Amino acid sequence: MKKSINLNLVKYKAKPYILGCSFGPDSMALLNMLIEQEYDVVVAFVNYHKREASKYEEKSLKEFCKIHNIKFYGLDCRLLHKPENANFQAWARDVRYNFFKKIYDQENACGLLIAHNQDDAIETYLLQQKRGSTISYFGLPFEKEYLGMKIFRPLL
After folding, report:
1. What SS3 string covers 25-62?
2. Which label site among 57, 65, 89, 121 has the fewest CB atoms less than 10 Å from its CB?
3. What is the Rg, in whole angstroms, of the alpha carbon atoms belonging to the chain?
4. How far apart are CA 62 and CA 56, in angstroms?
5. Burial class (CB in 10 A: 0-12, 13-18, 19+), 155
6. If we measure between CA atoms, which residue out of 11, 1, 21 comes closest to residue 116?
7. At residue 121, does pLDDT exceed 50?
8. Tell me: the pLDDT tens digits for 64-98?
9. Rounded to an integer, what distance in angstroms lies between the CA atom of residue 139 and that of residue 126?
């Protein structure tokens, strides 16, 4: 019998968590843990159409959610205008978190879950060091607030 990591998140009645899910191994592992531990979850997927596989990933994730009776929201970024000289990563982050915020408010969510893990925290720390960033926290925090959302990274 397989045993997953205990996520230790509060279970709210009638308040789901929003999971920012990319269909990558980390976010799918987190989604499976949420299902196994019977959390109320809604999936949010952003398709930037930057890779050939993104169409397949969106379709597969949508089907997975249907099978598990999980509400799915998808954002097709082809419908959005990226300013000509904008940094793609910064633009993508703004688009993603604004999308999450819209769902968060619509679903009256208790938190947004992101599947960052320790490798992501170390990578972020090293990038912050390389840039000489002056910040109050190096790496990735387990919990933070952004755009009025409580954001949790339970895999840290």
Report:
1. HHHHHHHHHHHHCCCCEEEEEEECCCCCCHHHHHHHHH
2. 89
3. 16
4. 10
5. buried
6. 21
7. no
8. 999 999 999 999 999 888 888 888 888 999 999 99
9. 8
> Above 90 in pLDDT, residue 1?
no
Sheet strands (E) in the chain: 17-20, 41-47, 71-76, 111-114, 143-146, 149-152
pLDDT at 99 exceeding the cut of 60: yes
CA distance 154 to 6: 9
In the structure encoding, which two tokens stand for residue 85, read together? 């000289």
* Pairing mode, strands 143-146 and 149-152: antiparallel
- Of 27, 47, 31, nearest to 39 by C-alpha is 31
Q: What is the DSSP letter of 92?
A: H
Q: What angle do CA 63, 50, 100 make, to 5 degrees?
A: 60
Query: Closest Cα partner for 18 from 140, 156, 124, 147?
Result: 147
Residues 32-43 have pLDDT tens digits of 999 999 999 999
More confident residue, 71 or 8: 71
| Secondary-structure percent of the chain, ordered helix, strand, coil, rounded to 5 | 40, 20, 40
Neighbours of 141 (CB within 10 A): 14
